[in-house]
Amino acid sequence: MLTKIVSGSVRNFLACQSRQLNNIRSLSAHGGADPNPGLAETKHGRKESEEDFDNRYLAWFNKPDIDSWELRKGINDLHGMDLIPEPKIIIAALEAARRLNDHSIAVRFLEALRWKSRFSKDIYPYLIQELRPTLNKLGISTPEELGYDKPELSIEDPFSK
């Protein structure tokens, strides 16, 4: 008796899973729902040009009704990629942070860009040079202006003498 109940439950479960899988396959085969509706790209998914990539993030950050979660998602997705975004994308993100009155995320984004560019010493000064007018217009400080580039409670190395 128990084996009939268990086998019937397993059969029902497998049939349900099979129907769901078939629905997903038919949607993707017929151009149905987008399998990746967010900003992050799949590993082997669609390929897009650099211009399309830039336009996608510019549209994301320039949304007039962007909220803090969406701003952080966009910045986090950018940070997770093996790239440093174009200055126009950074400017759009900084303007979105200013619209949300979130100075801290703007400074943390600049800190992350400095960290990502640590292997090529020319990139971060170039970014700051390109961003300087926007930073001044929006009243956003760089991590260096706030003293975040130096350790606060560092101890002098006793072995350096």
From TrEMBL:
Pathway: Energy metabolism; oxidative phosphorylation. Residues 27-48 are annotated as: Disordered. The keyword Membrane applies. GO terms for biological process: mitochondrial electron transport, cytochrome c to oxygen. It comes from the Eukaryota. GO terms for cellular component: mitochondrial inner membrane; respiratory chain complex IV. The keyword Iron applies. InterPro entries: Cyt_c_oxidase_su5A/6, Cyt_c_oxidase_su5A/6_sf. One of its GO terms (molecular function) is metal ion binding. Keywords: Heme, Iron, Membrane, Metal-binding, Mitochondrion, Mitochondrion inner membrane, Transit peptide. It is a peripheral membrane protein. SUPFAM superfamilies: Cytochrome c oxidase subunit E (SSF48479). Component of the cytochrome c oxidase, the last enzyme in the mitochondrial electron transport chain which drives oxidative phosphorylation. The respiratory chain contains 3 multisubunit complexes succinate dehydrogenase (complex II, CII), ubiquinol-cytochrome c oxidoreductase (cytochrome b-c1 complex, complex III, CIII) and cytochrome c oxidase (complex IV, CIV), that cooperate to transfer electrons derived from NADH and succinate to molecular oxygen, creating an electrochemical gradient over the inner membrane that drives transmembrane transport and the ATP synthase. Belongs to the cytochrome c oxidase subunit 5A family. Component of the cytochrome c oxidase (complex IV, CIV), a multisubunit enzyme composed of a catalytic core of 3 subunits and several supernumerary subunits. The complex exists as a monomer or a dimer and forms supercomplexes (SCs) in the inner mitochondrial membrane with ubiquinol-cytochrome c oxidoreductase (cytochrome b-c1 complex, complex III, CIII). This is Cytochrome c oxidase subunit 5A, mitochondrial. It comes from Blomia tropicalis (Mite). The lineage of its organism: Eukaryota, Metazoa, Ecdysozoa, Arthropoda, Chelicerata.
